Amino acid sequence: MLADRDVERWDGDPGHADIVDFLRAVGEVDAVGHRVVHGGSRFTSATQLDDDVVAALEKLTPLAPLHQPRALAGIRATATLLPGVPAVACFDTAFHASLPPAARTYALPAEWNRRFGLRRFGFHGLSHAWVVRRAAELLARPPQDLRLVSAHLGAGASLCAVAGGRSVATTMGFTPLEGLVMATRSGDVDPGLLLWLQQQGHTVDDLADALERRSGLAGLSGTSGDMRDLLAGVDAGHPDARLAYDVWLHRLRAGVAGMAAAMGGVDALAFTGGIGEHAGRARADACAGLAFLGLAVDETANATATADGVVGGAVVVVTAREDVQIATEVRVALSSS
To answer: How many domains does the structure of the chain reveal?
Structure first.
């Protein structure tokens, strides 16, 4: 069975009352699945954890500084609380291991790419993998027959073009900074602009902090970066909030069109993540600029959607269920080990 309880604001302490109570309520545990954002080039499928694997994941921390430390804290805590219970790392990058060379390769010196393993890794793979399965069910079509754009929109955001059930293009890259505008992350920025800022005296650490934590919707609008706060600002007539929302929409529409181009067309668009699932206004505004791709929402269906469902002829909403995807991958990993 799957646990159906969340532990909010856990700080990684294995002695934290909430996590201890959680495990007590769950009862006997057969296996633990961990969501790990960055698997690098080495980990392209769910992998049972041991000391060597954990050490390799620690080395990837600079590539996902907001996420990797939290995952490692969870790995260490459950190892302490559940000694002897097999644990499996499930990677957000693994789904994108299928990216073709043209989609994953940066136009950098080839020697750099070979020496440092530079490539677009992509993220939110656990979410995108679940979306493919669930969207196909909602549309009553086999995943292999769909050209699907999966839009994971939340504090972090990315798009994935899925053709024949496989990732063929995505917006995030070497790190989760690339791509769409996010709550506090910048998304795409001209690298020349960053070089210029360094020439003006900004350090690497300052730029990293700004790009990860002080940019995106929050940086542009002066709000928390939460879409609910942003839309409240838009409705109140705040120009910075309006601009931030328009930038977010512009990048999102352009990204969806780019994903469609990577597949030679699109059969469906799936929204997931906190914004994708709950912000009907944002879905409608995004699709308002995508009619040329045959993507449009039904006003009533979109406004009343509360769970998985079709909200337009080619538009669906899918509840994010990385937990189900992780459970599936854990079973596969342990059955083959």
So the answer is: 1
Are 147 and 78 in contact by the 8 Å Cβ rule? The answer is no
So what's the pLDDT on residue 4?
Answer: 64
Does the residue 281 lie in any domain? yes
Asked if 94 contacts 57 with a C-beta cutoff of 8 angstroms, the reply is no
β-pair partners for 317? 271, 309
Task: Establish if 246 belongs to a structural domain.
Answer: yes
Give the count of beta carbons closer than 10 Å to the beta carbon of residue 284.
18
Q: What is the pLDDT of residues 123-175, one digit of tens each?
A: 999 999 999 999 999 999 999 999 999 999 999 999 999 999 999 999 999 99
The active-site residue out of 11, 92, 206, 226 is 92
Q: Residue 224 is part of which domain span? A: 139-322
Give the CATH number for residue 149.
3.30.420.40
Q: What is the pLDDT of residue 17?
A: 79
Please report whether residue 128 resides in a domain. Answer: no
pLDDT in the model for residue 157: 98
Mean pLDDT of the chain: 94
Nearest to 254 by CA among 162, 168, 171: 171
Task: Tell me if 188 is assigned to some domain.
Answer: yes
The pLDDT, as a whole number, for residue 1 is: 52
Q: For the residues 10-19, what does the mean pLDDT come to?
A: 76
Interval 144-157: pLDDT, tens: 999 999 999 999 99
Active site residue 205: no
Average pLDDT over residues 206-211: 97
Length of the chain: 337
For residues 123-159, one letter each, b for 16 or more C-beta atoms within 10 angstroms of the residue's C-beta and e for the rest, the string is: bbbbbbbbbbebbbeebeeebeebbbbbbbbbbbbbb
